[in-house]
Amino acid sequence: MKAITYAEYGDPSVLTLSDVPEPKVGPGEVLIRVKSASVNPVDWKIVAGYLDPMMNVELPAIPGWDVSGVVEAVGFDTPEFEVGDEVIAYARKDWVKGGTYAELVTAPARTVAKKPKALDWHQAAGLPLAGLTAYQLLTRLGTKSGDTVLVHAAAGGVGILAVQIAKSFGARVIGTASEKNHDFLRELGAEPVTYGDGLAERVRELAPEGVDVVADFVGGVRDTTKAVLADGGRHGSIVEAEVQEDGGLYLWVRPNPDDLAALADLADAGKLTVPVADVFPLEQTADAFTTSAGGHVRGKVIISVSS
């Protein structure tokens, strides 16, 4: 099968379109024929070697954790799925080796859910990692109806989904973004504020009593978070572990089929969509990495593997 591989750490130039053996399907796994995959910052960070101190990587490896596709085969004792199911997965395994930038990928059943019918293949591929990140941070912070939630980097790949998820919970959402993205955030139901100097004051103008929940998806905003948090408020970050020093939650997203199914339900209910910023064919994955690493992308960068 065709796959993107890398045999050494480095910039996107180390990525190669290769012919590799089809993966074996173990017990409790599904084999997915990939329709689309998506690029997350963690993907190019792993290829660059930034996560080597904390993750086992077996080279040569195929990158990618997000996928949408069709079940091609199931391993022993995998009653959750059958051949022909349309699925999505945050297909993170216990080591980095066989990722989703390939024609076929195996995924543990614990990482897989049925694809939402309301999303196309590209949108569906962009949902798992970013959607789970937003969903798990908001739920672990106890976000509920009536809360006022501040989302840092609300127009980013995770922030866009966090805004919609918090709104689906019945929360009021204030989102930080550059002014060019303010109208877009209003369309999602958020109240936009410009990031930068004076942010705390601008948030306090909208929420004089402070905000109940702060979800940080950018980092470098601890002082602002503390300045706008109401008494008894909760806050967390996916970027800075140091928030724990201030009583906050540091979250590293985990595969969870129930959470992924909940996101799919929100999409099918019309409460959650996944904006797609750009789509690249498999052989142009290096260009997709470069686009993602450049930042300032509103929506997901997608790898189209098969039609």
TrEMBL record:
InterPro entries: ADH-like_N (IPR013154), ER (IPR020843), GroES-like_sf (IPR011032), NAD(P)-bd_dom_sf (IPR036291), Quin_OxRdtase/zeta-crystal_CS (IPR002364), YIM1/Zinc_Alcohol_DH_Fams (IPR050700). Residues 10-303 form the Enoyl reductase (ER) domain. SUPFAM superfamilies: GroES-like, NAD(P)-binding Rossmann-fold domains. CDD domains: MDR_like_2. Keywords: Oxidoreductase. Pfam families: ADH_N (PF08240), ADH_zinc_N_2 (PF13602). This is NADP-dependent oxidoreductase. It comes from Pedococcus aerophilus.
